[in-house]
Specification:
By secondary structure, the chain is mostly helical. It contains 22 helices and two strands.
């Protein structure tokens, strides 16, 4: 075995080890630096792995001394390496950018524990990307659930605790459905590793036996992962959790956590059941319909919000709808467009939440959009990030969202029965996106913002509100936002290599 083939296991292991070591450091800054060093190391290793697998190479790493079908293993190819690289870069930039907001929102005694949870959360995301075993995936789903709820309620307020409890309840419902589904699949196939399970599923499907237990397992797996990835109408928990958490937590939850579950869903569909069976059972039609509903309803709900982070949270529901619409097309072009939009959303939405957090910080941590008037003049880096992220979500040319929307439109022509629905949903959602993002940009760049006296009158005398026109100086925030924006524009203009890597990865993903 080549050394590079140890990268998937080592990436997961060092993040878990980081979670164990962090409480011993006794310092917020040390915990943060350790987290950034580990995530940066994973990014470098993921880049090396992507270079190794870019020609279509795919390999398995056996865990322990027992080979398949009894042992446990991880599996890596171009798609897994690409997603690991994107996730690690986004995680690094998110934590680097939000130092100021984390220091304000997370009390000193909780800071070390917060980074413990962030390390474990990222470890679980890497495991969902690489694992080739369903039960191992379930174990890391539970680690993901607990750590995600912890980073939501780390900010001390009644709203965040209530939001975390709602998130936990819905997540446990999803986890229960997934566990029952795994138990049913194991009873029918006798395997937990994905390839042996896939062979047993093919035998069942071709034997003419009653497929009702298999159908029930598929429905429960799809429903459980839909709940956890916030597909409408299972997304009621998302706005509160994302809007009330600190900016770093909101960024990670929206940009990365939701995608981890979708990656696992793609594994179940492509590696275990096969897309032919999914289409035959018409599961893809359900995902297609719910995806389109999410695109429209999520955007419509965003129009009704008065708090900036709730606008971005409802926008996430709409963007998840795009991904499920692509999966629901049931074609290779639709799947490629869905994966591309996962990357686009992972790069863009953390930038938007981070920008929103920066704008709120310079306005006395106000949540209302009206209170952010003129805030982009005090924090130009946050204002620029909001503009670039908004343009990407609307789908303006030269930004990343334009590429993924064009990919969805082109994919729809592979199934002419869905073309009108896809194009119509894209058009309606794009118009709605513009209707809530453009007014937000206008407000934050308005010439006059609320004065410090206005905050004092509202009982915010202790808030660190800069004087009118005083710029916010945060080098790490500005540098991270510049990297986010550069990555967004790079995907929007030089998307060819990314698309080819996605196609190469999907060809060997099943």
């Amino acid at each position: 075995m080549r050394l590079v083939e140890n990268i998937p296991f080592f990436s997961i292991f060092i993040m878990m080890a980081g979670g164990i070591v962090t409480p011993l450091l006794g310092s917020r800054n040390r915990a943060r630096i350790l987290h950034l060093v580990l995530v940066g190391a994973v990014a470098v290793m993921s880049g090396l792995l992507l270079g190794y697998t870019s020609d279509g190479t795919c390999f398995r790493f056996m865990m322990g001394h027992f080979p398949a079908p009894w042992g446990n293993e991880v599996r890596a190819g171009a798609l897994e390496a690409l997603m690991s690289l994107v996730f690690s870069l986004v995680m690094f930039l998110t934590v680097a950018a939000n130092k100021r907001s984390l220091e304000h929102d997370i009390p000193g005694e909780r800071a070390g524990l917060y980074y413990v949870m962030m390390n474990l959360l990222f470890s679980s995301l890497l495991a969902l990307i690489y694992t080739n075993d369903l039960f191992t995936a379930y174990v890391f789903i539970e680690i993901n659930t607990i750590s995600a709820c912890a980073i939501v309620c780390a900010k001390e307020s009644g709203e965040t605790v209530a939001a975390a409890i709602r998130y936990l309840i819905m997540s446990l419902v999803g986890s229960g459905l997934i566990l029952i589904s795994i138990a049913l699949l194991y009873c029918q196939t006798g395997h937990l590793l994905m390839e042996p399970m896939a062979g047993a599923v093919r035998e069942l499907a071709s034997s003419g036996k009653d497929l009702f237990p298999l159908k029930m397992a598929l429905v429960m797996m799809t429903s459980g992962l839909a709940v956890k990835s916030a597909l409408y109408p299972f997304s009621s928990w998302l706005p509160g959790a994302h809007a009330n958490a600190t900016a770093a937590s909101s960024s990670v939850l929206s940009g990365l956590v939701l995608k981890g579950y979708i990656i696992l869903l793609l594994k179940v569909y492509m590696r275990i059941l096969g897309m032919d069976l999914i289409i035959r059972l018409r599961i893809n039609d359900l995902l297609f319909v719910f995806g389109i509903l999410a695109m429209v309803i999520g955007s419509a709900k965003a129009l009704q919000q008065h708090m900036v982070k709730r606008v971005i949270a409802y926008s996430s529901i709409a963007q998840i709808g795009y991904i499920f619409m692509g999966i629901g097309m049931g074609t290779s072009a639709g799947l490629a467009a869905a994966v591309l939009h996962m990357i686009v959303h992972a790069v863009t939405k953390p930038m938007l939440f981070t920008a929103a957090g920066g704008l709120m910080d310079c306005c006395g941590h106000q949540k209302e959009i009206a209170a952010l008037r003129g805030s982009a003049r005090r924090n130009p880096a946050a204002g620029a990030g909001l503009v670039v992220g908004s343009m990407a979500m609307i789908g303006i040319p030269f930004f990343s969202g334009f590429v993924s929307k064009i990919s969805f439109a082109m994919a729809s022509f592979h199934d002419l029965d869905r073309t009108v629905l896809v194009l119509g949903a894209l058009a309606v959602s794009t118009v709605l996106n513009a209707m809530y993002y453009i007014p937000l940009i206008i407000i934050v760049f308005s010439e006059r913002g609320p004065e410090k006296a206005d905050y004092e009158a509202a009982g915010l005398e202790d808030a660190a509100v800069p004087e009118a026109g005083e710029p916010v100086k945060d080098v790490s925030f500005a540098a991270a936002m510049a990297c986010f924006m550069a990555g967004n524009v790079l995907i929007g203009t030089c998307y060819g290599p990314v698309v080819r890597m996605i196609e190469t990865g999907l060809a060997n993903f099943g």
